Amino acid sequence: MSEKSPQLEQLQRAIDIMGSQAKLAKACNAKQQHVWNWLNRYDNVPVDRAIQIEIATNGEVTKESLNPEFFTGLPPIKIMLRKSKGGSL
Q: Which of 19, 44, 43 is nearest to 32 (CA)?
């Protein structure tokens, strides 16, 4: 069996932070089966879910760490949300 990619290690970290696959799924408005699939079948978390995971973990797991090919060079979610809402989080 091969080692998990750094992205999937970060997904496991998000699961640990949230407490379970089901709790992470709920925070992302997804099904537990989706989280299982990301962890066991794919190399990256889908772009929209990576953003939701960053928000759900309060930035402890970043979108870049979950899908670096897409997000490299973009600002953290908190900064983007602050700019779009005109305030602070």
A: 19
